[in-house]
């Protein structure tokens, strides 16, 4: 009885029971999870040594960028060779491609992190109540604020969106729902593609020439800046909205037509609500594209140091022009002008971030509900 209930002796090489944790080793045909990280650390240490010796001998700063780049290259070689020896060529190629993609992602993050770090570090010094509650009227040297530029940016951008969004969305609706590849839709698509690559200064010259014909030479108005930015914004809205409308399944349209719903009502009640999330995202990308433009606004809206809420009368200051003017025309002390320029740049980034968050919230609220 005892022999029957006792456990059988485990033979060498017998399979592990289900659920048992197996720790991979170099002899198991699979690298441990810590192996890539260990190789990366070893590669950086190996490369950092000669760079440190060189910097000490030449009395110069340690080359961090060179260490990271060369270390990444050494890591890619080591991970490929070691994985090929242990895991085989297929897995080695997979690890190599994964390393290359990760390095590309890290390289893409470097400018973003660098810009964010620089703007926050230099711009936070003037993030005070005065900066957000006063203008530059009568200010020489230290002090002053950017309230007139912030309000100018918001009003001009709002006017640009009011002009561009209806035109862009309705153009996309025509191309997708009514164009059906006819000659007019092909011509519109060609012109939109051309307008997508138009230089911003050309848009500014066009708007200035248009308003100069109406109001005379030398005119500077906020609405002229909005028209210039609309020339840049409309193509982006058209292309993004067109792609979103094409993603709407034809089954939804056909089901609506089968119930006797006319086309225009199908578009307004089925197609647009289904694609509203993507269209909103495209509109915000277009807003982010134009909100930082400087050249067209310099020509059309000009710059001023006073508050002006009327887009149809007088010059209007915007944040990009404010940053340019503070940095280009420095007074005494120069540090005050540079601090205001960095603070204006940081404010512009925050405005774009807030607008994107609002767009995500709107897209989430108005997106069609898929649950029961």
Please characterize this protein's 3D structure:
It is a single chain. The protein has 372 residues and is mostly helical. The chain has 2 domains: 27-125, no CATH class; 132-366, MetI-like fold (Orthogonal Bundle). Helix content is 72%, strand content 0%. The protein is built from 14 helices and no strands. α3 runs antiparallel to α4 and α11 runs antiparallel to α14 (334-366). The protein is flat and about 70 Å long. The relative contact order is 0.10.
Comma- or semicolon-separated keywords:
372 residues; mainly alpha; MetI-like fold; 14 helices; 72% helix; 0% strand; disordered N terminus
Mean pLDDT: 83
Main sheet makeup: none
Number of domains: 2
Which spans of ≥5 residues are poorly predicted at pLDDT below 50?
1-13
Assembly classification? single chain
> What is the CA–CA distance across the termini?
60 Å
**Secondary-structure element string:** HHHHHHHHHHHHHH
Query: Structural class of the secondary structure composition?
Result: mainly alpha
CATH topology of the largest domain: MetI-like fold
Q: Please state the second-level CATH architecture of the largest domain.
A: Orthogonal Bundle
Range of helix content: over 70%
Integer-rounded radius of gyration: 30 Å
Question: Roughly what fraction of the amino acids lie in strands?
Answer: under 5%
CATH C-level class of the largest domain is Mainly Alpha
Assign the CATH superfamily of the largest domain. MetI-like
């Amino acid at each position: 009885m005892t022999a029957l209930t006792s456990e059988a002796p485990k033979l060498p090489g017998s399979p592990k029971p289900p659920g048992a944790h197996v720790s991979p080793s170099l002899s198991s045909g699979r690298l441990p999870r810590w192996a890539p990280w260990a190789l990366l650390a070893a590669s950086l240490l190996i490369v950092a040594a000669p760079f440190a010796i060189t910097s000490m001998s030449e009395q110069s700063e340690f080359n961090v960028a060179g260490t990271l780049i060369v270390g990444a290259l050494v890591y890619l070689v080591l991970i490929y060779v070691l994985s090929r020896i242990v895991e085989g060529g297929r897995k080695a190629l997979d690890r190599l491609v994964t390393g290359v993609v990760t390095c590309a992602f890290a390289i893409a993050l470097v400018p973003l992190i660098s810009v964010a770090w620089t703007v926050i570090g230099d711009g936070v010094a003037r993030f005070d109540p005065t900066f957000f509650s006063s203008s530059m009227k009568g200010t020489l040297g230290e002090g002053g604020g950017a309230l007139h530029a912030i309000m100018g940016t918001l009003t001009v951008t709002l006017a640009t969106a009011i002009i561009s969004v209806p035109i862009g969305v309705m153009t996309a609706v025509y191309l997708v729902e009514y164009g059906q590849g006819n000659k007019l839709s092909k011509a519109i698509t060609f012109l939109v593609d051309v307008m997508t690559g138009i230089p911003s200064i050309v848009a500014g010259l066009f708007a200035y020439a248009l308003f100069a014909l109406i109001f005379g030479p030398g005119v500077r108005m906020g609405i002229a800046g909005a028209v210039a930015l609309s020339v840049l914004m409309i193509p982006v809205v058209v292309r993004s909205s067109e792609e979103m409308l094409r993603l709407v399944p034809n089954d939804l349209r056909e089901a609506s037509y089968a119930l006797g719903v006319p086309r225009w009502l199908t578009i307004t009640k089925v197609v647009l609500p289904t694609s509203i999330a993507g269209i909103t995202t495209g509109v915000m990308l277009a807003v982010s594209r134009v909100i930082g433009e400087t050249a067209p606004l310099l020509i059309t809206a000009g710059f001023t140091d006073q508050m002006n809420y009327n887009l149809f009368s007088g010059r209007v200051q915007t944040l990009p022009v404010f940053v340019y003017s503070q940095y280009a025309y420095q007074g005494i002390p120069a540090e005050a002008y540079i601090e205001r320029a960095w603070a204006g740049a940081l404010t512009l980034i925050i405005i774009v971030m807030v607008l994107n968050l609002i767009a995500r919230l709107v897209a989430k609220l108005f997106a069609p509900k898929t649950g029961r």
